[in-house]
Design goal:
The protein has 255 residues and is of the alpha/beta class. The chain is 43% helix and 14% strand. It is built from 8 helices and 7 strands. Bound molecules: NADPH dihydro-nicotinamide-adenine-dinucleotide phosphate and 2-hydroxyethylsulfonic acid (8X3). The site of 2-hydroxyethylsulfonic acid (8X3) has 6 residues, from loops.
Length: 255
């Protein structure tokens, strides 16, 4: 059902975004892929073209860069403008410090990416969807948006904001054919924790030791289900976690 549909993914060269690009490429979708690393984006584009004969439009910009995002999205060729699915995936966390001890500059990056970056892209893409009277916005929220946990204060706040932005957008679009879904994963093993621990892979590995976490591919499978539902069905939210996880902080690990 996704053949020739246009799927726009932010943060498409790693983890959940990368897995979604592959999943939708296997279904014959045309992909607008955003990333901020030119080498990775070029290599991924080539890979998808070779493996899946996929039609790829690479958009190289940082989602925080409103002017560049605006320019590149407004300059999209007319055959790329009728976007069917927007996956607002780009996001990150840096550090596990307490709210009164962390680095405000790092928190600016997290807030500007997870909230304002997502809003930048939504603000640019939804008008295109309205013009074509079709579209689905899938925001990658998090179990972190359900409530704060130790050392997660700012990140949790950003994902609570993603829930509010998703709910608000759904309300604002209620008289249109557009749909909005907030997908809220628990533990997914990607580069996410490496970034959280500022590049310390050993510390990141500890997060997933003794439990079978989800993978980017698991989340892509769920997004594929959401994107393939009939147009009269709006999946508003999905909270998904590994079987041995109950909340953001209650996780059963093998000894
Ligand atoms: P990854 O670190 O593997 O991927 C994050 C992606 O976002 C990377 O491609 C990264 O680009 C990109 N990105 C970060 N900042 C920007 C920016 N300013 N502009 C453009 N792209 C950017 O982690 P995940 O795949 O796990 O994360 C994807 C989303 O899933 C995030 O929103 C995260 O909060 C959310 N999430 C993750 C969970 C997990 O346990 N992993 C659970 C719940 C939600 P680059 O490669 O250049 O750094
Ligand atoms: C990522 C999941 O639990 O590390 O959003 O916050 S968690």
């Amino acid at each position: 059902m996704m053949r020739d549909k246009i799927v726009f993914i932010t943060g498409a060269t790693s983890g959940i975004g990368e897995a979604c690009a592959i999943k939708f490429a296997t279904q014959g979708a045309r992909l607008i892929l955003n990333a901020r690393n030119k080498e990775k984006l070029d290599a991924f584009k080539k890979h998808l073209e070779k493996e899946f004969a996929a039609d790829i439009m690479p958009l190289l910009f940082d989602v925080r860069d409103r002017a560049e995002a605006k320019k590149q999205i407004e300059d999209l060729a007319s055959n790329w403008q009728a976007i069917d699915v927007l996956i607002n995936n780009a996001g990150l966390v840096i550090g596990i410090e307490k709210e009164f001890e962390g680095d405000l500059d790092e928190w600016d990056i997290v807030i500007d990416t997870n909230i304002k970056g997502l809003l930048n892209i939504t603000r640019l893409v939804v008008p295109l969807m309205l013009k074509h009277q079709k579209g689905q916005i899938i925001n990658i929220g998090s179990i972190a948006g359900e409530g704060a946990y130790p050392g997660g204060s700012v990140y949790c706040a950003t994902k609570a904001a993603v829930k509010a932005l998703s709910d608000g957008l759904r309300i604002d679009l209620v008289d249109t054919p557009l749909r909005v879904c907030n997908v809220k994963p628990g533990m997914v093993e990607t580069n996410f924790s490496v970034c959280r621990f500022r590049g310390d892979k050993a510390k990141a590995d500890q997060v997933y030791a003794g439990i079978k976490p989800m993978t980017g591919e698991d989340i892509a499978e769920i997004l594929s289900y959401v994107a393939n539902t009939p147009p009269h069905i709006q999946i508003a939210e999905i909270l998904v976690m590994p079987t041995k996880q109950a909340t953001a902080t209650i996780v059963h690990k093998n000894k």
